[in-house]
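Quarterly update from the structural biology core.
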Amino acid sequence: MRLHRLAVTAFGPFGTTQEIDFDTLSSAGLFLLHGPTGAGKTSVLDAVCFALYGTVPGARQSPGSSLRSDHAPPGTYTEVTLELTVGERRLEITRRPAQQRPKLRGTGFTTEKAQSRLRQYDPASGEWRALSRSHQEIGEEITQLLGMSRDQFCQVVLLPQGDFARFLRADAEARGKLLGRLFDTRRFAAVEDRLAELRKAAEREVGAGDERLLALAHRMAQVAGPGSPGAAAIEERPGEPGLADAVRTRAALARSEAREALDIARLRLAAAERRQADARAALAAARDLADRQARHADAVRRQEELTARRPQRDRWQTALDRSLKADRVAPALGLREDAERAHRTANAHRDRVRALLPAELAEAGAEQLSTVERRLREELGGLEAARRAEARSAGLSAERAVLDRESRADEDFLQDAAAWLAGWEARRAELRRHAEDAQEATTRAEQLAGRLEPARRRLAAARRRDALATELTGARERLTAARERRNERHEHWLDLKSRRLRGIAAELAAALEPGAPCQVCGSAAHPDPARATADHVDRAAEDAAYADYARADEARTTAETSVAATAEAWEAARAEARAGLRPGDAADLTDPADPAVCELAHEVDELAWQLAEAHALAAQTHAAREALARAEREYEERGAAQREAERRVAARTSRREALEQQQAALEAELAVSRGESGSVAAHATLLERRIALLTEAAETVRAAEAAARGLKEADDRLADAAFKAGFATPAEAAAALLDEPERRAFQRGVDAWQAEAAAVADRLGEAATAAAAALPPADPAAADAEHTAAERALREADTALAAVRERCEALDRLSRQADTEVRRLGPLREEYERVARLAALAAGTAAENERKMRLESYVLAARLEQVAAAATARLQRMSSGRYTLVHSDARSGGRRAGLGLHVVDAWTGNERDTATLSGGETFFASLALALGLADVVTDEAGGVRLDTLFIDEGFGSLDDQTLDEVLDVLDSLRERDRSVGIVSHVGDLRRRIPAQLEVVKARHGSTVRLRTGGDALSG
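Predicted structure, tokenized:
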């Protein structure tokens, strides 16, 4: 990896854009990054780390801190751009952190999201090609190309010497934490944890299996019951080897005892079944004998009842026989009753009709009544012509009435039409004038609407103008106060800062510790540390003053933004209020004064009233035109109707005279045909009623005569039929008849008596029934009691057998489950023993692990051995061959071994702890260790070349000879085409290293200055 160019804007102490050309610096191989304390040397390295990983090193990425420079203007974005080459690919990374910016609309600030951009240079086209804008994709791409995490990069590329000095003096546990973070040995720690988890899981499975075995043994003891050999308690506990054999032994004893009980239960069930079969046969025989004896007693009782009912049965049979003879006379009886009923009906009808006839015809016969009927029909036929004449006369009267009504209607219409037409001209003129006024109002409304909306906008603008004028005055007052507060806070902060810088030596001296190197000169001796004066200002007071100044400056910026926005809005409202004014409006354009709100409001109200009036009148335009059109159509229609009515009046007079003449002739003719009736129709109706009455009377007389003849014939036939059936009179035959329900009831009684008699005879004729009656009475109750006792004994035996059989099956099932569980636990127990041994070995607790080293410590020890070997090659050159770093895996006290680091002194031949080195020796030993670590981590990361390295501080603790040797070692890195940047403010280095990057501190932010060759040495 080689750095080419770095550009930072508004980042850390840099308020403006600063560019660093690493190609120019790297051409010298060794360059110096220097500047006063607090200028921003470390911020250059932070910018490189931020461009690659999106964050700065962990110690400087504190919660609540911001990467944005306090010196940057509000509109400038914080941005870092890094151009580098990794794996033959030239890349450009640009990042912006999340930051505050002024709002585009309104006042105040809003948060701008973080942004990232990755581009690659295409040598073929000479252009940059965009790759990604995703934070995650860019982070994964850079991590994959470099092969290092952020922590590894900060330890390998940005070599912090203070960390490695502490590494030399640290104990094994602290070294393990640092090496684990650099070499990412979490996977080996994960292996240890995984093995421990597997051991615990296997132990839980084995314990759970033993618990299941004990549970099965307990269940078998419950099934076997108290007193059984299988119910004895098991003394072995979960995890003990003999538990499985003990459970199997108890199971075998319980099964044996259960099978013996099963055989006994089967024998008892067989005896109970034989007893129950005998009792069931005896009960069936007793019940059969009792049933046959009961049947015989019932037959005797029923025979006695039949003897008592025989007289009733004989009476029913006699009645049925006489009813059969009377059935032959029934048709003649029915005919006689029908004839008598018809004779009574005909006589009653005849008497009713004769009561309506005239006295002279009341006793007339049928022939006389028919003669009178024919005479009246002849008279009715002669009235047909008179009917037609009378109908014609009525039609003429109706037509004359219609003509009279029409004549009166036409006279009324002519009078109304004459009155309406007389006022037509005046009405037409009024309608035309109304339509013209409405049309003019439409044009006027359009003109007023065009003036009203601009007037309303000017009124609203004038109101905004007056409100904004008041708000602008307040905003300017607030701005003046904010500027004064900002200037006061700024002067106060600068004063405190100057006082603190004057006493910074005392503040640094307060942090000195005996034997520890000075942060400024690097010396471990502190003969005369500075003392704080009475007016000394500490960092907390300076930070508080700066925070007050930053808040006051932000308030001033907010006030300026508010004044500018308010003034701009006031000017816009003022211009809009004056726009569109005409001479004669609320204010003239030549008048410098702005129009008042009350004048514009009066103008708007006046225009709105005129527009509403014009709209109301214009809305009547269509109605006025429609009214004029309807009136003209009505004028034409009334004129035509008047002429038509005059024509009808003339024609109606001639028609009325003709009708009067025709009706007079018809009335003379009808006077003869009406007779005493009021009309011909009434006279004809009277004749028709008389004819109908005579016709009905003749028919009733004939019907009465026919009914009398039918009654005499029916009497003769009935007497003959009764004699033939054997009855003395027809009345005797009628009395012997039975209706159908009565006959069926008698027949059912006779049939039931005969059926009962047959059944009793059959029952008494059975030989088995007669034999049972000769035996002693049966006792089924005793037989049933014996059978019940046998059934109960059988059920008890069957229940006992089922319980014993169920116990045998349960014991067999539990035994099989126990055998299965024992077979399953065998491999689990073997797996547990194997995993437990591996977990103990990896955790360093096993007897086989002689040095009690954990797996992660073992891997880190191998890495530390590689780092020590790589560091020794440079340490020998820096110490003129005196010191060699070696790895030690010896135990220290009760701690575990594996991460010891010793130095071998060639002058004495002794091996001692690295904590015994002096300050200067500690520096070049930690530098050699850092360079060696960089080589090992680089190889671990996949062999990615690190062509640019930075070394931070510590050179002030070296004498001139040692400094020359260290610089020679660093300069030798150019043999591998590397460039090394030294971060230091030691003055002697500025004379020794020609290529320099100076960070200059100023009141308005730091800047960078690139110096090479003689220019750098002379500065």
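The two ends are 31 Å apart (CA to CA).
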